[in-house]
Amino acid sequence: MNQPVQKNTLYVGGLAEEVNESILHSAFIPFGDIKDVKTPLDQATQKHRSFGFVTFLEKEDAAAAMDNMDGAELYGRVLTVNYALPERIKGGEQGWAAQPIWADADTWFERQQQEEEMQRIQAENRAAMQAAEELHRKKMAQEREGEKEEEVESKDDPMARAEAEVLNQSNSS
Q1: Cα dist from 30 to 23, 64, 153, whole Å
Q2: Model's pTM, two decimal places?
């Protein structure tokens, strides 16, 4: 599944234990105005999990910071700097933390309407096919009845019998 990239938020991986949000902010401020710095904490240890996020006000500043800081060293550790992907959460139609729960309501209703329309069209098509098959069966039955009636008529009709005899004699000669 393609995940949209947040062009002004950077993922910074490989952080040393000593690095905090203030140090991360100081390391990235030369590239432009920073809107936010986060270093998610491990719930068990209450220490950051060796990565963080830096959000710049401008996309261009984030691009410059990524170009310059990816592979750079901070507190003896080599940093990995990439564009951040939206945080994935469990559940929900699209599962993105950045969206409110009602964000996909319109598309959900559209999909429901499309599904109902598709089911209605399929039901109409099935009904039309059944009607066509029934019509074909009736037509075939009528043709068979007509053939039988012609055979019966020719047996009962003395003129038809005479014509059949003449045809048979001319064909055999």
Answers
A1: 12, 10, 106
A2: 0.49
Amino acid at 103: A
**pLDDT by residue (tens digit) across 135-153?**
999 999 888 887 666 665 5
Residue 12 and residue 80 in contact, taking contact as beta carbons nearer than 8 Å: yes
The one-letter code for the residue type at 28 is: F
pLDDT in tens, 79-106: 999 998 876 544 444 455 555 666 666 6
CA distance 51 to 16: 9
- In angstroms, the CA 37 to CA 10 distance is 10
CA distance 115 to 145: 45
